[in-house]
Specification:
The complex is a heterotrimer of chains A (about 325), B (about 300) and C (about 325). In chain B, about 30% of the residues lie in helices and about 25% in strands. With about 300 residues, chain B is an alpha/beta fold. Chain B has a domain of about 190 residues: P-loop containing nucleotide triphosphate hydrolases (Rossmann fold, 3-Layer(aba) Sandwich). In chain B, the strands form 2 sheets. Chain B has a 6-stranded mixed sheet with strand order 6-7-8-3-9-10. A 4-stranded antiparallel sheet of chain B has the order 2-1-4-5. Chain B starts with 16 loop residues before the first helix and ends in a 5-residue tail after the last helix. In chain B, about 50% of the residues are buried. With about 325 residues, chain C is an all-alpha fold. The chains are: A mainly alpha (about 325), B alpha/beta (about 300), C mainly alpha (about 325).
Chain lengths: ~325, ~300, ~325
């Protein structure tokens, strides 16, 4: 034991202090990583501050009559919130009508019925679908879903319509719903299934009466996250619902329409669009705030449900 | 000398008088008190207790560990032997809810002094774990990592060879130093872990049930190895195997667990600490006798 | 009487019949068929989509692929190309790789290695999960307010007025940061503690253990997550619209020099968005062709990530 452990001075606390250069380097690296972790808080704070500032300007200067009129025409200073909120609700409802049965069905099949090899093929296909950019689905909604599905359902449907956008958003949301739902079903212990089979229950009974009820919190979470995602989806609606500029209040899903997100995109499209009349610029942030608060609430809510499944098993 | 001014070094009096006095009365004071400086002492524990959150894993341990001897910790599971061993190189720091009260004096310096750097402590006091845990890298890199981070410059080949020779592994692996350590057998992996610990020139080696995952032949080789290197190193070993403790150790500490009536948890206590032959032939405490004769635990 | 219960001699026969389950389980079959239908419909959509864009864009690739890949945006569909879009997407990817990856992995290291289970880590964790759920268009607003307006002197002081690929790259780096952190943290959490203990046991510092042992072990998982988030960033359009990506014609922005970073820009998803809205028939096939190019990039990245993960899972 030659080199390093030779002590000239008697052994003391100083002998166990370690190399100061090494300690400094360690502290510096720790500081850098801390800054990286703290950055996410800064980002959240910046989002909240930016949204709050312009939203405050908007709310304090807008007149009630502008917020409740015939439609959403920000360049004419008409900010009818109903129009775009109802648009978002319609699109989300249609999207969830598509994504819930498809996503949940796929999840139950993958988790309860598919053999490992089948799963190994089907799961990546779902993941590929999940990775398709939303502009692509927007184009698909406009060029295929609208003429091949929506216009066959209603001959009065225009090429651009909310229904096609809703179906497009639903397809986009399906893999997300499926993935969260499958995770939830996967966390149901095997013993519970075996107990059910042990009593002579059939596969369908086990799935419907045992596994699904046990995973119900996770399935609810999958649904809520799906809703949150559908509300926040922009490009499919911006391309396929086709109401650039503005939109009259309407409940007709076979007609053009606008959602909160698409309204923001269409306001910002084109050169210097955001420097419009009056409060146009601020209205962008007002809608952004609505969207932010809504999706945040939904996500917090969904997180509760996810935790509930994890705690149970 | 060490400025021992930390608040945690002031042992609080525990508020369970009955249990405490009973144990204290039963504990033989075979060791000299830390005040009389024992020239061969490496460690002095003073009233050491370890907590995980509010749960007390082991309490009020006083003991002295001597240089270039093998000291074994024996006792039933859950009596805090491993927890105690991990205090000797501040490995417990890695468990964030762990808290240590009392002192671990290493050559008179409290290892839990705020000025002490646990990294430096672990360089001097190495550790071998229950399950062989080589890095998923080459045999060479496994040994060279310690010296490299300790700042040893130049060719590490010599250090690698010396460490492997000391761990009696050189002849088996000298032709495949670049191969992955994961390809070695369990016993070889554990000897590699010992070689890895030796590579940074520690004074003390802590071994946490080093043979519990090995077959009898591999266990025998590790025991031979311990016997060989004890002339140069102070070794502390936790073992479940009483025969092993009897075979290899010079001194032996017997721990047991007392059940806390209020919380249904178990707290470890040191029952007896003495020369190994006395512990196994003529222990002073009835509980030790029951344990070593197999009547309990 | 023996009307309801068969005679004892017939019992083995009955048991055999029951055990062999000849009775058709109608409910089970229908349930299973419905589930399979859900999955097949989902797959079918994917197939139809891919066939649609491939056939739609086929003409462009067979007649003028070179011109399409190297040409600029223009008013004539037959002469428009995606060079500027590819360039924008390249730089956005570069920003994400250069910023989001190191920052995200660094944050994950801090949360998992330096301060696990601390109150700070828990707070950051909740915060990151919330950030991951914020709609991308809201990140666009953030990018617009911070990078395009407040930091205009850095991102584009010239005629672009801040609406440059720098602003876009920074915005998308921030957008994917939470995803990078979450996936990297998961990969780091999967590293066995015995490996860390081995490192600490020979007197290594936290960083030495992380650099030499934790990161190499976690790297396939980290890489998978980062590649997936890169694919996500390359496909995003909404935030780019908010930070002022050019949706019309664009004369500049085909060069890859650093000075071009402060010019006006566009990117592949934006090209697709602006072409998809044009009524002239030539643009429909251009859009499909541009989608094929974007999908090729995104799906290749995803395939790489999935393959990487499968190999990694097998190795364990």
């Amino acid at each position: 034991m030659a080199d390093t452990s030779v002590e000239v001075a008697p052994f003391s606390v100083a002998s166990l202090r370690g190399n100061p250069g090494r300690i400094r380097k360690e502290a510096a690296i720790r500081g850098v990583f801390f800054a990286a972790a703290a950055l996410s808080i800064v980002i959240m704070a910046l989002i909240v501050l930016t949204l709050a500032r312009e939203t405050y300007t908007f709310v304090s200067q807008v007149e009630l009559a502008q917020l409740w009129s015939d439609g959403w025409f920000p360049r004419r200073a008409l900010y009818d919130i109903r129009t775009i909120v109802v648009g978002s609700v319609l699109v989300t409802v249609i999207a969830m009508l598509v994504a819930t049965p498809l996503g949940m069905g796929a999840a139950v099949y993958l988790s309860e019925y598919a053999r490992p090899r089948v799963r190994g093929v089907l799961k990546p296909v779902l993941e590929v679908l999940a990775s398709i950019p939303s502009v692509v689905l927007g184009f698909f909604a406009l060029t295929w879903i609208s003429p091949e599905i929506v216009q066959r359902l209603s001959d009065r449907a225009s090429l651009f319509n909310l229904a096609a956008a809703g179906i497009g958003v639903g397809i986009l949301t399906t893999p997300l719903v499926a993935s969260i739902a499958e995770d939830a079903m996967g966390s149901v212990p095997k013993a519970l299934r075996e107990a059910s089979y042990g009593m002579g229950a059939r596969k369908v009974t086990t799935s419907v009466r045992v596994v699904i009820p046990a995973a119900v919190s996770g399935l609810v979470a999958a649904f809520i996250v799906g809703v949150s995602r559908a509300i926040g989806e922009t490009m499919v609606v911006a391309i396929a619902a086709g109401a650039s500029g503005g939109s009259l209040f309407s409940l007709n899903v076979f007609d053009r329409g606008q959602t909160m997100t698409a309204a923001m995109a269409s306001l910002a499209t084109g050169t210097d669009a955001v420097v419009g009349a009056g409060l146009t610029f601020q209205s962008l942030f007002f809608v952004g705030s609505l969207l932010f608060v809504l999706t945040l609430l939904l996500n917090v809510f969904a997180d509760r449900y996810v935790r509930r499944v994890r705690q149970k098993y | 000398m060490a400025p021992e001014t930390r608040t945690q070094s002031q042992p609080e009096k525990r508020s369970e008088p009955t249990a405490a006095t009973r144990v204290d009365a039963n504990r033989p004071v075979a060791e000299p008190r830390p005040e009389d400086i024992d020239p061969t002492a490496v460690f002095d524990l003073e009233d050491l207790s370890v907590y995980y959150g509010s749960f007390r894993a082991i309490r009020n341990v006083d003991m002295t560990v001597c240089q270039k001897q093998i000291t074994a910790f024996i006792g039933p599971s859950g009596c805090g032997k491993t927890t105690l061993l991990r205090c000797f190189n501040r490995m417990n720091d890695l468990v964030d809810i762990a808290r240590v009260e009392g002192k671990v004096l290493y050559h008179g310096v409290n290892l839990y002094d705020s000025a002490v750097n646990p990294v430096e402590v672990r360089r001097r006091i190495g550790m071998v774990f229950q399950k062989p845990n080589p890095f998923p890298k080459s045999i060479y890199d496994n040994i060279a990592f310690g010296p490299k981070v300790a700042g040893v410059k130049g060719d590490l080949g010599e250090v690698v060879e010396r460490s492997l020779r000391r761990a009696a592994l050189w002849d088996e692996v000298k032709d495949r130093l670049k191969d992955s350590a994961m390809g070695l057998s369990g016993g070889q992996q554990q000897r590699l872990c010992i070689a890895r610990a030796l590579a940074v020139d520690p004074e003390v080696i802590l071994m946490d049930e080093p043979c519990s995952a090995l077959d009898p032949i591999a266990t025998g080789r590790i025991e031979d190895l311990m016997e060989e290197i004890k002339s140069e190193y102070t070794i502390l070993i936790v073992t479940h195997n009483m025969q092993q403790a009897a075979r290899v150790s010079d001194r032996c500490a017997f721990f047991t667990a007392e059940v806390n009536e209020t919380s249904d948890t178990r707290t470890g206590i040191l029952v007896e600490f003495d020369r190994t032959e006395k512990m196994f032939s003529n222990p002073s405490d009835e509980r030790t006798e029951n344990y070593v004769t197999g009547r309990f635990g | 009487m023996a009307v309801t219960t068969p005679p004892m001699t017939a019992a083995p026969e009955l048991v055999r019949q029951r055990l062999q389950g000849k009775k058709v389980d109608a409910a089970g079959l229908i349930f299973r068929a419905l589930l399979l239908l859900a999955l097949l419909v989902t797959m079918a959509v994917l197939v139809v989509l891919l066939v649609e864009v491939l056939t739609g864009g086929w003409g462009v690739f067979t007649t003028r692929m070179g011109e399409f890949l190297t040409g600029k945006l223009g008013s004539s569909a037959a002469r428009s190309g995606i060079a500027q879009g590819l360039r924008g997407t390249f730089f956005i990817g570069a920003f994400v790789v250069a910023l989001a990856f190191p920052l995200g992995v660094g944050a994950a290291i801090y949360l998992e290695e330096y301060a696990p289970k601390s109150r700070f880590a828990r707070f950051v964790d909740i915060n990151i999960r919330n950030l991951a759920g914020v709609p991308s268009v809201v990140y666009g607003l953030l990018g617009f307010a911070i990078f395009v307006k407040a930091l205009r002197f850095l991102t584009g002081p010239g005629s672009a007025n801040g609406a440059t690929v720098i602003s876009a790259g920074l915005t998308l780096a921030i957008l994917v940061l939470p995803i990078v952190i979450i996936t990297a943290a998961e990969a780091i959490r999967a590293v066995p503690d015995s490996l860390r203990e081995a490192g600490f046991g020979v007197g290594a510092t936290r960083w030495e253990v992380v650099r030499s042992h934790v990161l190499p072990y976690a790297s396939p998982g980290i890489l998978t997550g980062t590649v997936l988030s890169l694919a996500r960033a390359l496909g995003e359009a909404a935030p780019l619209i908010l930070v002022g990506a050019t949706t019309g014609f664009l004369s500049e922005g085909a060069g890859y020099g650093l000075s071009t970073l402060q010019e006006r820009f566009t990117a592949m998803p934006i090209v697709i968005y602006s072409w998809a809205g044009r009524p002239q028939p030539g643009f429909a096939s251009n859009t499909a062709a541009a989608i094929v190019v974007l999908l090729a990039v995104v799906l290749l990245a995803n395939a790489a990530a999935i393959l990487l993960r499968n190999r990694y899972e097998k190795r364990r």
